[in-house]
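In the laboratory, one determines a bound structure by crystallizing the protein with its ligand and collecting diffraction data. In a computational setting the workflow is compressed into a single prediction: the sequence and the ligand go in, and a structural description comes out. We illustrate the idea with zinc ion.
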Amino acid sequence: MPNKTRMLDHGGFVHSPKVPMEPAFAGYLHQADQLYDRWQRAFDQWNQSPFSLEALAEKKSSQQEFDVFVAAFADKYTLKFVERDPRFLTLAHFFSQDRPIREGFSVLHCTVDMPLHTVCSFQSRDELERINAALDEKIPLPWWQNGPLNHPCYLFGQWIWELKPAEIGASEKGIFLLFEQTKEKESQRLDKLRSTLSHASGTESRDFIPETVRVHVWRRDGGKCAKCGSRDSLEFRRLLPANRGGGNTADNWRLLCGRCHQKQLTTGA
Ligand SMILES: [Zn+2]
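The predicted complex, in structure-token form:
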């Protein structure tokens, strides 16, 4: 089963669909994307033909141009500022909003020293359908970014999942089955969590007795078991349990010793 990551909280941003995009920012983003694309292309070209002087020159000049641009915005759209800017939503936030997503959107990325630029875009109807299906746990969708261990990742439900080494290279069908299993395990995990939580809150309401009620019941019952008069292992017990509508007032509480309480539990008396 792939590993759940926190990549939706840290990594990509989306320009909030509820805030109109300022022309200045749209202009900035357009230029950033163009420069970044050019640099990426030049870098790939140079990778393929590392001895070409032409490729080297293009790589250098595109990098320089991108660096100048980055420096000009270094205090504006970098991580530190974007994280606090309400125009930009983390992907986790964006994906948990109104669904299905109907309007095209772009995933923007920035790091401490690299300002925002577009890393992937979901614009066509087909792309939006796929992202909605992934969010609804119908299909795993390959993610643009590798995970913390540098393994391929998938969007599935509200999480980005990173493949384990043994899972890398699985067929499309294999990956699909992997995530079907993940879904199963997740729902089991959530069920368990839910029952633990409801058990915990049940315990709390059972054990909580207001101080005034506690004092009143203790005095009324004379500090001894209301049934047999024993003073051993006394506890405050409800006549009618909370889950059957028993209240929290003095007339629903009494003192019982351990033995009478046990008897009451087994016989219902
Ligand atoms: Zn008793």
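The longest helix spans residues 172-207. Keep in mind that any predicted model is a hypothesis to be tested, not a measurement.
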